[in-house]
Amino acid sequence: xxQIKDLYKKFGRNQVLxxxxxxxxxxxxxxxxxxxxxxxxxxxKCILGMVIPNKGTLIVMDEPVKNNWRxxxxxxxxxxxxxFPGNLKVKELFTMIxxxxxxxxxQDDLVSLFGLxxxxxxxxxxxxxxxxxxxxxxxxxxxxxxxxxxxEPTTGLDPASLIQLKKLIQVExxxxxxxxxxxxxxxxxxxxxxxxxxxxxGNIYFKGSVAALKSKTGEKDFxxxxxxxxxxxxxx
Length: 236
What we know:
CATH topology: Rossmann fold
Largest sheet: 6 strands, mixed
Distance between the termini: 32 Å
CATH superfamily: P-loop containing nucleotide triphosphate hydrolases
């Protein structure tokens, strides 16, 4: 699924990724965590081919990322901030994406699930942040793909929509798909994640289950375990 070997990325003098090695072979829900500046977003953008690493090997869906675009057709990506064209109506955006993908879609079911029918004829520039995030989620889950990457997917969601999002993530897992998630909401991560990848200073400091992380830190509470591993790693 994903094979990363000795991955480095520097922006100017800032070394963001420092020899990351990572293999993701099985399906499931994997949370990529770490403090601000730890390299989470850069790692995800390298996987997506949006950032070119300075060094290293990156293979996704059995295809090398370098000088390649075909593998991206098998990835659904939910960005942290969706910059939609403000002059488009919601239904026009959906139609445009469907025309590009040319695949069976679940638009109608997802629109109903998130209560977006009243907004289909509204321009994207008029929508609230929470409604834009629902549109973002519909676009991400509209097509079936073996790999989904969700960057802060809970942003702006009301409690009912958050429940529906969790259900969608579990449905994708049941299909045998792989879901990578970044989030600052530890309760959400604890509820959905099968595995934690914790980045610090551009490298993987911990990889394992929520239970393994609690055991490693001696903390019973997941949020406290994350705080403890951050503190412990910083003191090394």
